[in-house]
Write a structure and sequence with these properties.
alpha/beta, Arc Repressor Mutant, subunit A, D-Maltodextrin-Binding Protein, domain 2, two-stranded antiparallel ribbon, 43% helix, 24% strand, rod-shaped
Amino acid sequence: MARKRIEFRHLHAFVEVSNQRHFTRAAETLAISQPALSSLIAQLEQDLGTQLLVRTTRSVELTPAGREFLPSASRIVGDLLHSIQEVQDYSQLRRGRLRIAALPSLCTILLPQAAKIFAERHPDISISIVDVVGDEVVDRVMRRQVDIGIGYVSATDMIAAEPVLKDRLVAVGTREMLGGRSALSWADLSGFGVIAMSEGTTVRRLIEQGCREAGIKPDIVLQAYQMPTAIAYARNGLGIAILPSSSVPDEAEDIVWMDIEAPLIERQLAVIRTRDNPITPPASAFLKVLSELRAS
């Protein structure tokens, strides 16, 4: 038995000629030569073992077999063309969605700013951002509940972690507490009540690292699970909040922030995904916005 040559191009040619009832116009629509179109129809008829079209000097008519075959061929061609269009729309950001899991510190200021710009540039892409602690960021990525995560984690055999931005721990307090200082060390914190993030959070682990390296035991007077809560405590003079620089707003009349040195505690934040899950076009566009914000 001869090998069948029937491909999408054969079906597309047949459907177009059937709709146009004219070889020349169909060839123009398909952007191929008329001889090439005639060859495709001849190959299709040969492989099917029956004539599908009757070509006269003025028009093209369907044979009974052609009329029988046309609905199925049209459905196949239409479905594939529709699928191709959907993929093109997705890759060109004309449709789709973007799901992100990120650390709460990033969802206070930076990611909302990025999401606003992204939505203005790509209004046809729906975006959702969930703020969760570090371990859950990774868990949601592994479960494919999100397209990407942004957090503080190292790469593994299953997880790709691509650096995206770096921040550091800073002290946030009232002008009465910090306004007269040009610098602040971890050792200096022993003279203040400390507002720390809750145990088990990434920031709390970094705070403990800074205190350990400086050889001090902090006087933790309050703990907060949300960054805005810690800032509110600090704004009311209840202590010095230790937070990531990416979560701290611009200085206001009643509050300031500064780096904590000796040592300077930094964290490298990364875009997290499973190694078998490439960065999607919407995620790539969002990361471009994020990069622009960090550079500004």
